[in-house]
Amino acid sequence: MGRKFFVGGNWKCNGTGEEVKKIVSTLNAGEVPSTDVVEVVVSPPFVFLPLVKNTLRPDFHVAAQNCWVKKGGAFTGEISAEMLVNLDIPWVILGHSERRLLLNESNEFVGDKVAYALSKGLKVIACVGETLEQRESGSTMEVVAAQTRAIADKVSNWANVVLAYEPVWAIGTGKVATPAQAQEVHSELRNWFQANTSPEVAATIRIIYGGSVSGANCKELAAKPDVDGFLVGGASLKVVIFFLFLPSYFPHGCWLG
Ligand SMILES: O=C[C@H](O)COP(=O)(O)O
Q: What range does the record give for the signal peptide (predicted)?
């Protein structure tokens, strides 16, 4: 069975209650291809999770943007994996570069978080990606492999993980990776899984791309064989554009039969 295309919308720290209601209502009214071949997940800020969860169409799913590394307790300001499970939120984004860089989340900490979230039954969108400096010094693969290794050190079952390759230099900058650049890293990551986990994980894990994805570039990116979907930031707030990412699966030919 092929890898189901995955389209995630990361709303980051944006939106008022009214704006979120409008986005949800536009999403609910949109026509999408069968969710048998595309999985759609939107990730609102924590405070809007119940609102989105309770009003979003049932064929789309909801992700939190983070959760704590272990069981909840005296961790002011944090949200636990248990709370997300209690709210019936199925997905969580972990290891986003904004948290790695601004909040000093280390590879090891992200690995621990992924393992804990999975152990509680959450599905995880785990993010990896290099900075511009790292790319220019030729260490892209070394960086993303170390980030992935830190997860692999704690996780053996990858069935509920989607890996998001998000080059830091492409996030929110309008400088999207070329389809060839994305394919190169995705394919090397898949080789990494082949060498370090199992052929089954390598063949089945979805590796999605994030970083200035837009209606103008999504089709070419999606045409690459190892690009299994997107994690979209800014453009996911503009629902009309977000919908353009869904038919971008056409290049793989899957839902055309
Ligand atoms: O999680 C999403 C990524 O950070 C991409 O954000 P962007 O599409 O605004 O560049």
A: none
